[in-house]
Amino acid sequence: MYQGDTVAQGKIVTAEMCAVDAIYSSRAFVISSDRSFAWTSNCGTKWNGSVIKGSEVIFDVEFLNQDTGWVAGCCGRVWQTMDGGITWSAFESGLNSDITRVNVLHNEKVVYAMGTNNALLRLDLVTDAKELESELPKNFHLDQNYPNPFNPKTTITYTLPENSRVLLKVYDVLGQVVGILVDGDEKAGNKFVNFDARNLPSGFYYYRLTAGKFSEIKKMLLVR
Question: How far apart are CA 165 and CA 61, in angstroms?
């Protein structure tokens, strides 16, 4: 829906946006007044989207991780996604209120939502001692650095679904190593590292992430 549908400075071509949430620098989520939902995983270069059905109005959005999130809407409803916003399911509170704010307590795995008429909801993310969704990412992933092009600093983000031996190196166009950003064991989760290229000349560079059997390379541009 929103793929490639962007204008200058990463703005989304859509109806008026109501709320935004981000779990790290490259992955963000927005909702709009026309019940549309959009997300980016590359700092806004490309957007994807869906429509939240069954609601006339939505007000707020918050995500626990890259897959699990909630939006607050009218008529006492809160919607949950467990696939990054591709599909949504509604939670009916039975309240005659608009749910205007939603907040996730990450450490306690609890969602609080509030709205009109003094409405206050609490949703526990643990049922029968079994978690509905893990906070850990499901897949290895290496994001495009941001900003790109950059001068002289940029940020590289990546995700680890399990504890891994991680190696993140930067190479010039000749294949020579010009920087080692990470070299060691890391716990699972969303990660970021800053790269300072103040001592390097302008031009294209490559960065490679190796974590267990996963390996990926991306290109970036340093402009003085």
Answer: 34
